[in-house]
Amino acid sequence: MKYKIGTKEKPMILKTPSLTSEFTMHNDEKDGKEILVCTVGKTILHYDARILEDLHAMLEKHKDWMELGSADEQKTAKDGTVEAWGRSENNPLGGWYGLKKGFRGRVGMYVPPLMEKLGLAEVTHDAKGNKMRAK
Fold first, then answer.
1. Which pTM was predicted?
2. In this structure, are residues 66 and 79 in contact, taking their beta carbons and an 8 Å threshold?
3. 65-70: Cβ within 8 A, 24+ apart
4. Within a 10 A sphere around the Cβ of 133, how many other Cβ atoms?
5. Tens-digit pLDDT profile for the chain (135 aa)?
6. What number of CA atoms fall less than 13 Å from residue 94's CA on the CB side?
7. What is the DSSP string of 6-67?
């Protein structure tokens, strides 16, 4: 695991981009694949851990701020946002980085604060319309 995020017993505590809610993240493995486990209250989301490097590389090529555009899986992601990239057939995975059916969205909400904490990105912290860029 390239990035040590924490364990189930001792996860990393993070805040949403608007700084209004807390959630946790930790590393785990599922089906032989490294994953990020995001816990928001009683809701648990899984993301392919490759998103950290892949999103960072995309943001470096983008060279500017990109809107997060967080959305649930059932809602359409706004074009040109981190959320849209996280489910696009044109990203390095060729689809969703979210791994739990029904809970594959919200990449734009939960991954940017982790990348900021790891020193990979800068994230704005406004009430709405937050953005990120590579660091």
1. 0.96
2. no
3. 65/124, 65/131, 65/132, 65/133, 66/131, 66/132, 66/133, 67/129, 67/130, 67/131, 68/17, 68/108, 68/109, 68/112, 68/123, 68/130, 68/131, 68/132, 69/108, 70/105, 70/106, 70/107, 70/108, 70/109
4. 15
5. 688 899 999 999 999 999 999 999 999 999 999 999 999 999 999 999 999 999 999 999 999 999 999 999 999 999 999 999 999 999 999 999 999 999 999 999 999 999 999 999 999 999 999 999 999
6. 0
7. --SSSPEEEE-TTS--EEEEEEEEETTEEEEEEEETTEEEEEETTHHHHHHHHHHHH-S-EE
Six-digit token string for 89: 């057939």
What amino acid is encoded at 52 in this protein? L
Q: In terms of Cα–Cα distance, which of 114, 101, 88, 108 is closest to 44?
A: 101
φ, ψ for residue 44, nearest 5 deg: -120, 125
Residue in the block written with tokens 């590389």: 57
